[in-house]
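<goal> How does this chain fold?
<body> The protein record starts here
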Amino acid sequence: MNEDFSADLLTLVDEDGQEHEFEILDIIENDDGCFYALLPTFDDPQEQVESEGTYYIFQVFEEDGEQQLAEVEDEDLLDRLAAEFEAHFDEMFEEEGSEE
């Protein structure tokens, strides 16, 4: 077992002031900007199973000198980013499998 593994976690606060914790799966920077693939974390393992591993893509933007994240709403951009993240996930898992 790899003792060095620990998830990179990020807490986001929604417009209602509620905190939501996410695991950072990956970060992509391209001509469209900087994007995070985030997986929600759950206290209840059953909720994690029921989520089916759905992740969300957020774009970084700056407001009042601070970095903020917003969900990507442009469907075409979202599709392109999802394909890019999925390809990168596949590469990471292939590399992980070859190290064993």
User: Anything to note?
Assistant: The radius of gyration is 15 Å. The helical segments are 45-50, 75-99.
